[in-house]
Design brief:
By secondary structure, the chain is of the alpha/beta class. The chain has helices at residues 15-26, 40-43, 66-76, 91-100, 112-123, 131-143, 156-174, 179-187, 190-194, and strands at 6-11, 31-37, 54-57, 81-86, 104-107. 46% of the residues lie in helices and 13% in strands.
């Protein structure tokens, strides 16, 4: 029995990128593109008409940012899975996207086959990250120290969020057990992310 088709909506301001992603998804078995939106202002009032399984979201959008849009979509459609697809890999955006409600963070330079795998992983309960993003999370976690040595105004809950991110990808990278299970067990409960204060800022590198 074939798994259900994954329905995807794309929120991306660059027309060529939108259309290339649409062509990729529609040509790939098990995927279907529902809608293409050039901005959050366009997507928010129309998403309910055909709610997808996954929304691919660029965060560098004109007008309302993708991060704010993710937050609003999460509030309106709690079951919607949102995967960030962006060129940005700085610390601040990574954690703002996670706190807003994104389920994963993938760079646009990701090979197409891996992008498809990331979409499937989100649907299966995982939280995919590009290797570059996972490395930044590891580095950030190593730099987090007890309050007397900390450079970041992180609360204990925010430190716990960092630990969850790192441990999930540590298990994944070492190949311990089921790959999806490690990310699902540690990351997919979105309540853990959503409870983190929206003001989380972790030393941007840009």
């Amino acid at each position: 029995m074939q798994p259900p088709t994954i329905r995807v909506t794309i929120i991306e301001d660059q027309r060529t990128t939108r259309e290339a992603l649409q062509a990729l998804l529609n040509a790939s078995e098990g995927f279907q593109t529902l809608d293409l939106f050039a901005s959050m202002e366009e997507a928010l009032p129309r998403m309910a008409a055909r709610l997808p399984d996954v929304a691919l979201v660029d965060i560098g959008l004109p007008g309302m940012s993708g991060i704010e849009g993710i937050r609003r979509l999460r509030d309106e459609f709690p079951g919607l899975l949102m995967l960030v697809l962006t060129v940005y890999e700085d610390d601040t955006r990574i954690f703002e996207a996670a706190c807003a409600g994104a389920c994963g963070y993938v760079l646009k330079k990701t090979p197409l086959k891996e992008l498809l795998a990331s979409i499937r992983e989100v649907v299966d309960g995982g939280a995919p990250m590009s290797p570059e993003i996972a490395r930044r999370v590891f580095r950030l976690f190593r730099e987090v120290r007890p309050p007397e040595r900390a450079n970041y105004a992180l609360t204990p809950h925010e430190v716990r969020l960092l630990k969850l991110l790192v441990e999930g990808h540590s298990d994944q990278d070492r190949g311990h057990g089921n790959r999806r299970q490690s990310s699902h067990d540690l990351l997919s409960p979105q309540a853990r992310i959503r409870e983190t204060p929206r003001s989380l800022q972790v030393g941007s590198s840009q």
